[in-house]
Design brief:
heterodimer, A: 222 residues, B: 237 residues, MetI-like fold
Chain lengths: 222, 237
């Protein structure tokens, strides 16, 4: 064990790798936070669409969710890497490729959580909302979703932790996140045990903090 | 898209052979890692509910640490970090016998063992505490009660979540390409490199993964109905 390699490269690993405030376009948090927000937003749309009455809405949403839940994330990242530049006819930076892959992939998982949350709301709530004269869209927005989101919070936070960990896979297309930063340092210093254990601890601290928040929500009665 | 598809790249040349060998490596890697994950998962899951505090703490530490760190980091850790610490003969043996494959088995198995233990723990917690008390009252030791009463019931309860966790393991085996294990995703990339036909190659890989997941889910749906405990949980759909 030689901790000096960690001490010497601490600013690079944390400031560049974790936060993304350095010479490279990178950073785990800079990728994870927008991916969580956008992935959740798309997930809500898909989750609601999967429960829609109209078949032409429900069908495509179901197909989307089942497709992406049956495929490895690495595969989706490669799809984006090859297909996005061809579709848009210009080179796409790693950051956008990775962000697109995470949003598209994780939205399928968020959608399933949203669906389970909506289905946990008692049917009588919808009937009551209809009885007081709300339209279907209004009862979804004002009655069902606010209650559903509460019961979804623990699984949502779990999925956010998963997404946070998954961002490490952006390093395989060259995005400089915490994992890639450790690889870069390791190529120079050849201290794999110390470096990978160190970033494991950093990842663990971040995800553990998130899971403590999740536990708080679980205890608070909805 | 500016070019025509050329699906024949998937069966001309070596592509078919590569896909097949990639598929076999993925299956072998996933199967070995699954065995390791199941052993660790049952052990850690059972220990986390055990009435012995130090064992509980040990199991919790294992689960919380391994589960909350990205699999990719574990791949690098087991492949680059661990072998140099081993004695020389062990290192030589490893590097002569595909160190990257065994590192991937360890990484996948230990990571998913931690995740699997959560599934098993929730199964054990779903069993009323009185079952354990009744088993102990009939004269079984705690170990016997776990082995003969608690675990057999828990394992039958957790078939659906354990299936989805096993599918996660199968899909996550693709991360092994980062330490150059020649599994399915790796071979898909190889076809793309040799033929410059990205869409065709990725489609083939994607369809194989989808096919694997759907067939495993179908088989496990049947298993779920077979092992369902009458009167305890809802019979299969």
């Amino acid at each position: 064990m030689d901790v000096s390699v960690i001490v010497d490269n601490f600013p690079f690993l944390i400031v560049q790798g974790l936060l993304g405030l350095g010479g490279f376009v990178g950073g785990t948090l800079r990728l994870a936070i927008p991916a969580i927000v956008l992935g959740f937003a798309l997930g809500v749309v898909l989750g609601v669409a999967r429960l829609a009455r109209a078949r032409w809405v429900r069908g495509p949403a179901t197909a989307y969710i089942e497709l992406f839940r049956g495929v490895p994330l690495v595969m989706v990242i490669f799809w984006m890497w090859f297909v996005l530049p061809q579709l848009l006819q210009r080179p796409i930076p790693e950051y956008s490729v990775a962000l697109a892959a995470f949003v598209i992939f994780e939205a399928a998982y968020f959608a399933e959580i949203v669906r389970a949350g909506i289905q946990s709301v008692p049917r009588g709530q919808v009937e009551a909302a209809t009885a007081v004269g709300l339209t279907r869209a209004q009862s979804l927005r004002l009655v069902v979703l606010p209650q559903a989101i509460r019961s979804m919070i623990p699984s949502l936070v779990t999925q956010m932790i998963v997404l946070f960990k998954d961002t490490s896979l952006a390093s395989i297309i060259g995005y400089v996140d915490l994992t890639k930063a450790a690889q870069i340092v390791n190529n120079r210093e050849i201290r794999p045990f110390e470096l990978y254990l160190f970033i494991a601890v950093v990842y663990w601290l971040c995800t553990y903090a998130m899971s403590l928040v999740a536990r708080r929500f679980e205890r608070t009665p909805a | 898209m500016n070019d025509q598809f050329e699906w024949s790249v998937l069966w001309s040349g070596q592509s078919g052979q590569w896909l097949l060998s990639g598929l076999l490596t993925t299956l072998r890697l996933s199967a070995l890692a699954w065995v390791l994950a199941a052993i660790l998962g049952v052990a850690a899951g059972a220990l986390r509910t055990a009435p012995v505090r130090p064992l509980r703490i040990l199991a919790t530490a294992y689960v919380e640490f391994f589960r909350n760190v990205p699999l990719l980091v574990w791949m690098f850790f087991w492949y680059f970090g661990v072998p140099p610490l081993l004695p020389r003969p062990a290192q030589d043996w490893l590097f002569a016998h595909g160190a990257e494959f065994w590192a991937a088995v360890c990484a996948l198995g230990v990571y998913h063992g931690a995740r699997m233990s959560e599934v098993i723990r929730s199964g054990i917690r779903a069993i009323p505490r009185t079952q354990l008390e009744a088993a102990v009252a009939t004269g079984l030791t705690t170990l016997q009660a776990y082995r003969l009463v608690i675990l057999p019931i828990a394992l039958r309860l957790i078939v659906p979540p354990a299936t989805s966790e096993s599918l996660n393991l199968l899909k996550n085996s693709s991360v092994a390409l980062t330490i150059s294990v020649a599994e399915l995703t790796f071979q898909t990339r190889q076809i793309e490199t040799y033929t410059a036909r990205a869409i065709e190659a990725l489609t083939a890989g994607t369809l194989i993964y989808l096919g694997l997941c759907v067939s495993i889910a179908t088989v496990m749906g049947w298993v779920e109905r077979r092992v369902a405990i009458p009167g305890l949980i809802a019979p299969g759909r």
